[in-house]
Design goal:
single chain; 286 residues; alpha+beta; GMP Synthetase, Chain A, domain 3; Rieske Iron-sulfur Protein; four-stranded antiparallel beta sheet
Length: 286
């Protein structure tokens, strides 16, 4: 007689629950036993990291698009971040400022102008200089506010002051024609109203399969990927207290104003540029 076996398919939630159950058991053991388990865990994780590193090198050579697609999966993304096998999503400040300026340069160049980074004055100030026709245009103040300043603050949430070193141009009554006056929302997606995001809380959203969370503290709104750096579990079910989000599943803590992981310092949630247009909250997800 042939014996039939039914293999149980476990969901991600099942696996996380099982891990948590074993962690609770181990926490009841004496310290010597816990040390043995911890060393075993470290040895297994080291082996897994080495295997994943070799796998990534092979896939990069043969099928880079497939690797990029795999990283979009929440579980794969979380596991690779846990082992520090993909680059942190938050580049250095200067690089993010340059990225922000690159997004506004096409508009400036269409008006025969450009913008240069002059100085970064920590902790929260950036000085820039408009050049070309933008340097002495009556619309320069509008250009700074609608284009350059919004771009820098979106890419660099820690920057609260963007200062132009150009001399102030007196408005003479001529028509103001800023390169950003009509196109400042191009490439941005309106996902919510400000009042839909709980003050001091979280609003989970999903767009084209991408899971995000919007967080708000008074007038400050930030956007992050809805994925804990530990096992990639959703964050919106966690608890927020004093600006710190605690993941429900394993207690990882994050500062909502910066996305920094307090449990594993030096790691950050993946941030998405956010800006307000009236009462709308727009996110740049591309």
């Amino acid at each position: 007689m042939t014996q039939l076996t039914t293999e149980k398919t476990q969901t991600l939630e099942d696996l996380v629950t099982e891990i948590s159950r074993y962690e609770q058991i181990v926490n009841q053991w004496d310290q010597n036993q816990q040390v043995v388990v911890e060393r075993l865990k470290e040895a297994i994780e080291t082996l897994h990291k080495e295997a994943l590193t070799r796998l990534i090198k092979i896939v990069k050579k043969e099928a880079l698009p497939a690797l990029r697609e795999a990283v979009e999966d929440e579980v794969v993304y979380g596991l690779l971040r846990y082992h520090n096998l993909i680059k942190p999503p938050t580049p250095p400040l200067k690089k993010r400022i340059e990225q922000a300026l690159e997004t506004v340069r096409p508009g400036l160049k269409s008006h025969h102008g450009d913008v240069e980074l002059v100085a970064i004055k920590l902790p929260n100030t950036v000085e820039v200089k408009l050049v070309g026709t933008c340097s002495n245009c009556p619309a320069s103040t509008l250009t700074m506010k609608q284009g350059v300043e919004q771009a820098i603050k979106s890419y660099c949430p820690e920057i609260t002051k963007v200062i132009s070193v150009n001399n102030t141009v007196t408005y003479t009554g001529e028509k103001i024609d800023s390169p950003f006056a009509a196109s400042q929302d191009v490439g941005w997606v309106a996902l919510a109203r400000v009042d839909e995001i709980p003050n001091g809380g979280i609003l989970p959203l999903e767009i084209e399969g991408l899971k995000l969370i919007l967080v708000r503290k008074d007038n400050m709104v930030k956007g992050y990927r809805n994925s804990c750096l530990h096992l990639a579990m959703p964050l919106h079910t966690g608890e927020v207290e004093n600006g710190v989000l605690t993941c429900l599943h394993h207690g990882f803590k994050y500062r909502l104003d910066t996305g920094e992981c307090l449990t594993s310092p030096g790691m950050f949630l993946e941030a998405y540029p956010v800006k307000r247009s009236g009462e709308r909250v727009l996110v740049k997800v591309a």
